Amino acid sequence: MSAAARPLEGGRRLSLSWIGAVPFFLYVGVFLLLPTAIIVGGSLLTPGGTLSLANFDGIDKPYMFKAFASSIAISSVSAVVGAFVGALLAYAVVTGKPDGILRRSVMSAAGVLAQFGGVTLTFAFIATIGTVGFVYVFLQQHGIDIYPNGHVWLYDLPGLTLIYMYFQIPLMVLVFAPALDGIRPQWREATDSLGGGTWHYWRYIAGPLLFPSFLGCTLLLFANAFSAYATASALLTQGGVILPLQIQALLTSETGSSQPGYAKALALAMIVIVLVVMALYTLLQRRTAHWLR
Amino acid sequence: MTTDGRATPRAGVEVRLENLTRKYATTTALDRLTLTLAPGELVALLGPSGCGKTTALRLLAGLEQADSGHVVIAGKDVTNVPANRRNIGMVFQAYSLFPHMSARQNVEFGMQLQHVGAAERRERAREVLDLVGLGPHMDKFAHQLSGGQQQRVALARALAIKPKVLLLDEPLSALDAKVRARLRDEIRRVQLEVGITTLFVTHDQEEALAIADRVGVMQSGHLEQLGPPTEIYSRPATPFVAEFVGLTNRIKGDVRGGAVTVRGTRIPLVDPDVTDGPATALVRPEAVSLASNGEMEDGPLVGTVIAVAFLGAMSRVTVDLGDTIVLAQMATSAASDTPAGTKVRLALRPDPVLIQREEPAATAP
């Protein structure tokens, strides 16, 4: 008899195997569900405690609209570029030896780098290509100025996009490699034996098989960038450029004009966007699950 | 069938593999393999893993390039022709159907690449799917089909392009025994109906013997023997073939005058031109039977039954003769009287056997 089961009347057993998942559910409850509930509640309640949509009134203000647009733009660009570069890297890794050193080292590095972010990542970029960074100084000494006309784009949205790429590409490698692994060599050989070439294989077989997964992974990257906060907060001194920084500004106003209800309304809008994106991601992954297992 | 066991020529083409050699780093996977398939013939390449049978098939398909030698199909040297221009249909071991396409779309795909019109494609797909008995399932996807049905779709897909040659790379190995036997017969039926020259690669001797016009037994990149199934089984050319195809008892004996004396029984040799002396005779279990009479006193063929394996109509009896273990295969009705522990006397049928000589022991330096 299993240690995690005890007999009941009639010979049925009550499975206790779910106990192992308790820490996970506790973690999810405390750090995901509870904050979400606080955000939902806080966005729908006035300071007086009455139910209202008043907190959502400011969402259509031009500066807020601009923050939404910037967040979506930066997330889209970093997701699309990260997806393409990451997919190519994943393909190079997957087509190598399954237990080769290239695959093992790239996948390990991707596992670490996909989680890299915040102050440390920002500092890494500032120390290399910042205005006193050693790479910038080296390039400048050799006549190459990456900041023409004095425009230091590193501390602006293009710079943030570049830094996001640092964790977006490894994340794509991690999430897209399993789909590439699911592509069977027999499909290529079957295409050959049926009279097809490389173009036919990618056009009719590998492309359609991988596309839903690629699109799903791109959406995941979008959600990843859209919800990123620490890196942008460490890099950008100008508040409110993107949505997470707007929420930060509304929560921690130094002039005493904080608007927690408004901040939570914005956070709820972000949650809705991420939920939609993740739902699409799940649908796409499910579509290809039985193709590429 | 012709007298040499080859199938009567049908609509297929002749295929010749001439001195094909393929090496992987320091390993020689195929060593000067020469094999000719008559038009419409089904040849099975049989051998253990790593013997080179799949390499031979892949070289014929064009999926790999030979280091030397030639592949000739219908009189044309195609050694340097890429796989997609050889017009060869291929059925893979498993999971080769395109999973995002229905059975019909899988079958139509090759014709689409050949620029066959949509209406004709659809019609031919229906025909070949009917041929393999899957007409009613043509709109199902791979994950909605059983393993046997998937392999039948793969066969239909390979045949739909009207290939010159059909290659089957262990197509039944991923299926359970019952489906395997049924599909094996179905493949043979379809192959005979279409009349296509076919190379079938397998490690399953029963499969090879049941389906092929001729069987080629391979070992270490060499073709050990090529012949009709009955010849491969009853007159193996080498000890490897004797031991790989079917079960074999290895019993010590003494060769004298073109026959070997094994535990008091004189048995003729497959190859009588061997020198006299001690040797190991390779005796099939079905050539070993229970003696119907005689005393059960000690003798060279008297022993104790240690196991009886029920195989259906036949049973395999394992007998301990004291200094060696012998397998005997007989009707289950006969074996049922000899449970484990019974003392029995065996008899050896004088079917010609192969012998194997012990390698001389290396002398110490």
Which secondary-structure class do the elements of chain A indicate?
A: mainly alpha
CATH architecture title of the largest domain in chain A: Orthogonal Bundle
Percentage of residues in DSSP E strands of chain A: under 5%
How many separate domains of chain B? 2
Shape summary of chain B: elongated
- Give a count of the beta strands of chain A, DSSP E runs of length 2 or more: 2
- Number of distinct helices of chain A: 11
What's the level 1 CATH class of the largest domain in chain A? Mainly Alpha
Distance between the termini of chain A: 33 Å
CATH topology of the largest domain in chain B: Rossmann fold
The percent range for helix content of chain A is 55-70%
Sequence of strands across the biggest β-sheet of chain B: 6-7-8-3-9-10
Taking all Cα atoms into account, the compactness measure Rg of chain B is 24 Å
CATH homologous superfamily identity of the largest domain in chain A:
MetI-like
**Kindly, what is the distance between the CA atoms of the first and last residues of chain B, rounded to a whole number of angstroms?**
57 Å
